[in-house]
Design brief:
By secondary structure, this protein is of the alpha/beta class. The chain contains 12 helices and 14 strands. The chain folds into 2 domains: 80 residues, GMP Synthetase, Chain A, domain 3; 251 residues, P-loop containing nucleotide triphosphate hydrolases (Rossmann fold), CATH 3.40.50.300. Bound molecules: adenosine-5'-triphosphate (ATP) and magnesium ion. The site of adenosine-5'-triphosphate has 20 residues, from helix 4, strand 12, strand 14 and helix 10.
């Protein structure tokens, strides 16, 4: 099931501007779609002087018809003034406040090297909900258990999951113009979720994503790390591009589930990193199978072999197959990821094995 943002984009692609005949998405009349978990939707509609005002109603009605949508607010703006930056809702953090408003078009910056972060690893996927955040969090903890110094940040402004999954949620302190990361299970963590109120939509896009990613890399007191994991949002959008523009990403790990559609999306994810010259270390197949508790036999809930096929097609190793295990979800919801809560489980052992394979492959690629 597509997420709410995708559903909104889908219905809006059916709303046509009678003046031009083009749909409002293709015509780039819609900006800053923000959603909350309780179904509130807010967006900006760029309505030109000659455009029919009934478009506002059409847009609203199209979105209201989506099941689960509770409230729709359409902010109408003049396209001539559309370059002004939106004002993000956030807890006031001095470092964030100091950020100047971005101007369009954004300059493409030179990637900056941050030697204190160690090896920077993006955990990515083409499709949403396949378990990127789960894998990223458990890998980070598994690496820390190996005695490594590990940091993790999320680059997912629409659905920051790290605070819940790691059981930490507080506005981080700021000292000497540096944000002090929080710490959970031996891992330093910073999340956009620490900076925004839980029920407020994140209406940040493009240049602002870049700004936040840069701040997380540069303005957080990470100290010296061995590995720095980045939990990416799904897809191949702003955040992926911003991250590789902001710094040298040493490696990417692509998470997929076994189904064909997830695999197809994951392939696009692999290609995107290859285009940006980020080496993909391999594929992690998540929700690979469910172990029948009575017989111990694996049941292929989402089909089988997708991760292996993708790995073969791309000439990449399959780094691991993580079983579907309800304790993974419980761990994610309770702030005690499975490698902490149930280290003896098959899923935890496989995640720890993936962490070791990642360390080995990074060491091969970047001997030092
Ligand atoms: N192997 C697994 N077994 C059982 N539940 C899992 C497993 N992997 C992930 N989950 C659950 O599936 C849900 C989605 O996982 P997660 O949030 O990690 O995905 P994601 O790819 O980061 O999603 P998004 O694209 O929204 O960022 C979560 O509730 C998580 O606890
Ligand atoms: Mg996620």
């Amino acid at each position: 099931m597509p997420n709410l943002q995708e559903q909104i984009a889908g219905v809006l692609a059916g709303v046509r501007n009678p003046r031009t005949g083009a749909d409002v998405v293709a015509a780039e009349m819609v900006r800053d779609i923000a959603t909350t978990v309780d179904g509130k939707v807010r967006l900006t509609l760029l309505l030109g002087a000659n455009d029919d005002a009934t478009l506002v109603r059409d847009v609203r009605q199209a979105i209201e018809a989506i099941p689960g949508v509770a409230d729709v607010r359409v902010d109408v703006r003049d396209p001539a003034q559309a370059h002004a930056a939106p004002t993000p809702s956030r807890r006031s953090l001095p470092v964030m406040e100091a950020a100047p408003a971005p101007k369009a078009p954004p300059k493409v910056p030179e990637p900056v090297h941050y030697p204190n972060l160690g090896r920077i690893i993006a955990v990515s996927s083409g499709k949403g909900g396949v378990g990127k955040s789960t894998v990223a969090v458990n890998l980070a903890i598994a690496l820390a258990k190996q005695g490594k110094r590990v940091g993790i940040m999320d680059a997912d402004i629409y659905g920051p999951n790290l605070p819940l999954m790691l059981g930490v949620d507080a506005a981080p302190a700021v000292r000497d113009d540096k944000i002090i990361p929080l710490e959970a299970h031996g891992v330093k963590v910073i999340s956009i979720g620490f900076l925004i109120e839980r029920d407020q939509p994140a209406i940040w896009r493009g240049p602002i994503v870049m700004k936040i990613i840069t701040q997380f890399l540069r303005d957080v007191q990470w100290g010296q790390l061995d590995y720095f994991l980045v939990d990416m949002p799904p897809g191949t959008g702003d955040a992926q591009l911003s991250l590789v523009q902001a710094t040298q990403v040493h490696a990417a790990v692509i998470v997929t589930t076994p189904q064909q559609v997830a695999v197809g999306d994951a392939l696009r994810g692999v290609k995107m990193f290859e285009r940006t010259a980020v080496p993909v270390l391999g594929i992690v197949e998540n929700m690979s199978y469910f172990e029948n508790p009575e017989t111990g036999k694996p049941i292929a809930v989402f089909g089988s072999g997708g991760g292996a096929r993708l790995a073969e097609e791309c000439g990449l190793p399959l780094l691991g197959q993580i079983p579907l295990d309800p304790r993974i979800q419980e761990g994610g919801d309770s702030g005690r990821p499975i490698v902490v809560a149930e280290p003896a489980s098959k899923a935890a052992k496989e995640l720890e094995a993936v962490a070791v394979r990642i360390m080995e492959r990074i060491a091969e690629r970047y001997p030092s």
